[in-house]
Amino acid sequence: MNPIPGNGFFLVGPDIAPGLFHTDGTASTWGVWINNVPTEDSMCLWFTYSTPDANKDNVVETNISVGPMYANINSTVKAFESRNCQPWTRVT
Question: The whole model's pTM is what?
Fold first, then answer.
Protein backbone atom coordinates (compact mmCIF):
# COMPACT_ATOMS: atom_id res chain seq x y z
CA MET A 1 0.00 0.00 0.00
CA ASN A 2 1.60 3.27 -1.11
CA PRO A 3 0.64 5.79 0.01
CA ILE A 4 -0.36 4.59 3.47
CA PRO A 5 -3.51 6.37 4.73
CA GLY A 6 -2.96 8.88 7.53
CA ASN A 7 -5.23 7.03 9.96
CA GLY A 8 -5.17 3.35 10.71
CA PHE A 9 -3.38 0.25 11.93
CA PHE A 10 -1.40 -1.72 9.36
CA LEU A 11 0.41 -5.05 9.48
CA VAL A 12 3.87 -5.11 7.91
CA GLY A 13 3.80 -7.67 5.13
CA PRO A 14 0.08 -8.19 4.42
CA ASP A 15 -0.87 -4.48 4.46
CA ILE A 16 2.33 -2.49 3.91
CA ALA A 17 5.89 -3.20 2.80
CA PRO A 18 8.88 -2.28 4.96
CA GLY A 19 10.69 0.92 4.06
CA LEU A 20 11.22 4.56 4.89
CA PHE A 21 8.02 6.60 4.68
CA HIS A 22 7.36 10.36 4.74
CA THR A 23 4.33 12.45 5.67
CA ASP A 24 3.80 16.18 5.38
CA GLY A 25 2.53 16.14 8.98
CA THR A 26 -0.78 16.67 10.66
CA ALA A 27 -4.05 16.25 8.82
CA SER A 28 -5.76 18.76 11.12
CA THR A 29 -6.90 21.92 9.41
CA TRP A 30 -6.90 23.70 12.77
CA GLY A 31 -4.70 23.54 15.83
CA VAL A 32 -5.29 23.91 19.53
CA TRP A 33 -2.34 25.20 21.50
CA ILE A 34 -2.05 25.31 25.28
CA ASN A 35 0.88 27.24 26.76
CA ASN A 36 2.48 27.42 23.28
CA VAL A 37 2.34 23.62 22.88
CA PRO A 38 -0.01 21.96 20.37
CA THR A 39 -2.44 19.43 21.81
CA GLU A 40 -2.17 15.77 20.77
CA ASP A 41 -5.41 16.12 18.75
CA SER A 42 -3.67 18.77 16.62
CA MET A 43 -0.66 16.63 15.81
CA CYS A 44 0.30 13.66 13.62
CA LEU A 45 1.22 10.65 15.78
CA TRP A 46 2.68 7.30 14.73
CA PHE A 47 3.89 4.07 16.34
CA THR A 48 5.77 0.97 15.20
CA TYR A 49 5.20 -2.30 17.09
CA SER A 50 7.26 -5.43 17.66
CA THR A 51 4.05 -7.52 17.65
CA PRO A 52 1.08 -7.52 15.24
CA ASP A 53 -1.21 -5.73 17.71
CA ALA A 54 -1.56 -2.25 19.17
CA ASN A 55 -0.32 -3.13 22.66
CA LYS A 56 1.54 -0.03 23.86
CA ASP A 57 3.97 -2.29 25.80
CA ASN A 58 5.35 -3.41 22.41
CA VAL A 59 6.11 0.02 20.89
CA VAL A 60 9.45 0.03 19.09
CA GLU A 61 9.44 3.67 18.01
CA THR A 62 7.03 6.61 18.05
CA ASN A 63 6.95 10.26 17.05
CA ILE A 64 4.54 13.16 17.17
CA SER A 65 4.66 16.42 15.23
CA VAL A 66 2.61 19.07 13.46
CA GLY A 67 5.13 19.21 10.61
CA PRO A 68 6.74 16.79 8.17
CA MET A 69 8.41 13.65 9.47
CA TYR A 70 9.68 10.20 8.54
CA ALA A 71 8.90 6.71 9.85
CA ASN A 72 11.34 3.86 9.33
CA ILE A 73 9.24 0.71 9.06
CA ASN A 74 11.96 -1.92 8.90
CA SER A 75 11.54 -5.66 8.41
CA THR A 76 11.73 -6.39 12.17
CA VAL A 77 8.64 -4.26 12.82
CA LYS A 78 5.34 -6.17 12.78
CA ALA A 79 2.83 -3.27 12.68
CA PHE A 80 2.50 0.47 12.04
CA GLU A 81 -0.16 2.81 13.43
CA SER A 82 -0.84 6.35 12.21
CA ARG A 83 -3.20 8.89 13.74
CA ASN A 84 -4.26 12.25 12.33
CA CYS A 85 -1.52 12.33 9.68
CA GLN A 86 -1.50 13.17 6.01
CA PRO A 87 -0.85 10.11 3.80
CA TRP A 88 2.54 8.43 4.07
CA THR A 89 4.54 7.93 0.87
CA ARG A 90 7.38 5.45 0.53
CA VAL A 91 10.80 7.10 0.10
CA THR A 92 12.94 3.93 -0.09
Answer: 0.85
